[in-house]
Write a structure and sequence with these properties.
Elements: E1 3-11, H1 14-30, E2 34-38, E3 54-59, H2 62-70, H3 72-84, E4 85-93
Antiparallel strand pairs: 1-3, 1-4, 2-3
Length: about 100
């Protein structure tokens, strides 16, 4: 069953985020992840949630999704992201 990483990212410093943007896709690919949404235009229609940037990544399995998130390669980029952005991140299983 596929698992989706869904993140809301509100950048505080785009310049310091550039290395994250260039390197993390390679790590995601290593763990068989595929970007479905990476930024793009957002239109608000209901509720209070008004993210500035949304990212959705599909992984073939929850095991691969968590292996990516917990990997040594990604760990240093989590630190960078947490310094330059306010973010919320969840993993959601798809329909089997």
């Amino acid at each position: 069953m596929s698992t989706y990483l869904i993140a809301e990212v509100n950048l505080k410093n785009l310049e310091d985020y550039s290395e994250y943007l260039s390197e993390v896709p390679k790590i995601i690919s290593k763990y068989n992840g595929e970007y479905l949404v990476r930024g793009g235009k957002i239109s608000h229609h209901e509720g209070e949630w008004k993210p500035k940037r949304v990212v959705v990544v599909k992984f073939p399995t929850r095991k691969e999704a968590l292996a990516f998130y917990d990997s040594k390669e990604y760990n240093r980029f989590k630190i960078i992201r947490n310094k330059v952005a306010d973010s919320n991140l969840i993993f959601v299983d798809g329909i089997s």
